[in-house]
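Q: I'm writing a short explainer about MAPEG family protein for a general audience and would like to include a description of its predicted shape. Could you first generate the structure from this sequence?
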Amino acid sequence: MPFALWSILLVAALPLVWAVVAKAGAPYDNHRPRDVLAQASGYRQRANWAQQNAREALPIYAAAIIVAVLMKVPFPRLDVAAAVFLLARVLHGVCYVLDWPTARSLVWTLGYGVVVYLFLLAGAVI
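A: Of course. Here's the predicted structure. Afterward I'll give you a sentence or two in plain language.
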């Protein structure tokens, strides 16, 4: 299976990575799991925000890849775009946790640009 399709699963796993960062070492009650994150501060709070943003980014990315595949965009182009998106999303989370808001916004923009690029490829606009 091409990397572009595997990347959907990898992007879907990113919220779990940031959830682990947010929860690791914090007092945890499995009866009320969201309380830990609701009380989080500092890097844990930012990791939780990264988790939420990663979940929000997944549907449009998955749709863009699927549409591009359905429109028969060559997989080598999709694989490169998928790698750039995945890297941007990982860097986005890192920037969130490290509290680098300008860099975070720049890599978010790069990731969103990849989604637009995928739709443009699918529409044979570029």
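A: For your explainer, you could say: The chain has a mean pLDDT of 95.
Q: Perfect, that's easy to follow.
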